[in-house]
Amino acid sequence: MKYNSARKKYNNIYIKSLTLMFLFFIFSVMVLNVIVPDKKFSSQENRNLKSKPKLSVDNLLYNKFTSKYEKYIADQFILRNFWINVKSRSEILAGKKENNDVYLGKNKYLIAKFKKPGKEAFDEKVKAINDFSTENKKVNKYIMLVPNKIKVLEDKLPEFAPVENQLEYINKFYSGLDKSIKTINVFDALNKNKNKYIYYKTDHHWTTQGAYYAYLEFCKSSGLTLKDANYYNIKKVSNEFYGTLYSKAGVTNVDSDTINVYLPKKHEDLLVNYVEEKKKSSSLYNSSNLNTKDKYSTFLGGNHPIIKISTMSDSSKKLLVIKDSYANCFIPFLTSHFSDIIVVDLRYYSDNISTLIKDYNITDVLMLYNANTFFEDESILNISDYD
């Protein structure tokens, strides 16, 4: 009896101790989430993290605040990368072929999921771009939505992986645009070359080779005289690249990627002006970034609000590229075709685009996005000044 009584007493103390420890842990996490400063960028995922949403009438009326706040909490949760890695390891040990919205594909390909866009957001983007076209009737307008691995390399997906047809949404979006906007289909060119190294295995980006095939399609649509592959020296600058999907999926049994740059055999002088940072360079590449985790940011030094590239081209054309990071390795192919190239990332640039077009005497506009980012991100809505 004395033994049972002592054991019962010990069990009660043990349970109470565990309960107190758990409550202390929860309380500590809550306090740390409040006092630890928010982070702006995740180097592990190579993306900007959500900031605290503003409590406004618009957000409340349209039920946006709760959704935005949930995303903010998810992004800013204390020790977020640690918890992501714990989840990743446990999922892999359980034999799952998908983790953190990344499929563990065949031949060690990591493939990001495609999320079906909501109808309202889809229609708002169509309207924004059509309004932009109406505002800027005198310029040539092109849009290139690049399909991701999940469509082009669908043969690499795990068996029976449930996926939406990304290409259908791209084509549907194109069909809703004003006829003055030339839509560029790059799926056929990428699909034709799907057995080549056109997407990184561990990252969400296409490779420079993939971007080159898209450049050829842009030349066909815009009437530019293309430069064939012999125009370039292909230089390997890294074979130790582990991209965003590697970090997100939490895998270790994959091979590193190789980054190549296409350099004109005949040197082309140019000036790259990072306008808001007040920095200038004579190169489209920032080789110091090859020593960082985000080696893809070698192209154009990563993402910036606005970049002005002045070339030695005798062309009278001036191009505005409205883009995400897929354009960063694509833009170097354009320098011989335009005297000036203005590069804008609407995730960071907030000034009026139509005013910018007038200020820089823009003749051509290219909107270039990968489909995943385009359908998930809302920044393209800032392209138009219309309400």
UniProtKB/TrEMBL annotation:
This is DHHW protein. Keywords: Membrane, Transmembrane, Transmembrane helix. The chain crosses the membrane at residues 12-36. It holds the Pfam family DHHW.
